[in-house]
């Protein structure tokens, strides 16, 4: 696992956007897995800026979704499909046909989960999966004690996660109780995992993910099992890393985006 410490969120976004540019230059039709929330916004803004400046041709890129709320009506502004279309697909000038995600409105939700897992495999697998991390160490919506070999499935959100996401809704009561999420096993099948964490609130989760044991109580710790995982953190999120000095000395010149 590479851990790269950057000065702030903007620097992290620029660094990861450059990794995505390098990938698209090597593989123009790469399948990019995206995350939602406020943390990855600097990535998408930096990447869109590079596309507009013609630093990279993203016209053949494909986008896939990490997770989705269950039960929000089609077109709801806070459904993750709407968010990804608004924050990623449209700014990059991509066709909506380039986007794939699970159906949170399906009558057979479990069937929709299995269908999405199959669709990712049939698409050739995810080339680069962006991840955020919750204050409790969750990735996607794999809450603590999720199986480390889990597949795409329906999950019940913890109260903490619902409270964390309430800022995107008019009322905390509007936050759905259930989601579809790629499982940890599904996530680990991506060729490159890139996690961005910013802010002091994420410092404990980052330290447990990077330096703690691999354990289901901290789902993000499963990244230690991946052959090519990059963790990008700002100074605040890195504040509880015991090996912060080592990471600065080892990885801060330029991460090995192409892997080993």
Main-sheet strand order equals: 1-10-9-6-2-3-5
Q: What's the count of strands?
A: 10
Order of helices and strands: EHEHEEHEHEEHEHEHEH
**What is the strand content?**
15-25%
Summed up, the helix count is 8
Helix percentage range: 25-40%
Quick one: CATH class?
Alpha Beta
The radius of gyration is 17 Å
Name the structural class: alpha/beta
As residue ranges, the low-confidence spans are: none
Tell me, rounded to a whole number, the average pLDDT.
Answer: 93
In CATH, the architecture is 3-Layer(aba) Sandwich
Total discrete domains: 1
The major sheet is characterized as: 7 strands, parallel
Give the N-terminus to C-terminus distance in angstroms.
11 Å
Task: Based on Cα principal axes, name the global outline.
Answer: globular
CATH topology: Rossmann fold
Walkthrough of the structure:
The chain has 260 residues and is α/β, with parallel strands linked by helices. The chain has a single domain (2-251), classed as Rossmann fold, CATH 3.40.50.1360. The chain is built from 8 helices and 10 strands. The protein has helices at residues 9-26, 41-52, 80-89, 109-122, 159-165, 184-187, 203-211, 244-251, and strands at residues 2-6, 31-34, 62-65, 67-69, 99-100, 128-131, 153-156, 178-181, 192-197, 229-234. It has a 7-stranded parallel β-sheet, with helices on both faces. Strands 4-8-7 form a 3-stranded antiparallel β-sheet, covered by helices on one side. Helix 2 links the parallel strand 2 (31-34) and strand 3. The radius of gyration is 17 Å and the shape is globular. 45% of the residues are buried. The model has no long low-confidence stretch (mean pLDDT 93). One of its GO terms (molecular function) is glucosamine-6-phosphate deaminase activity. Pathway: Amino-sugar metabolism; N-acetylneuraminate degradation; D-fructose 6-phosphate from N-acetylneuraminate: step 5/5. Keywords: Allosteric enzyme, Carbohydrate metabolism, Hydrolase.
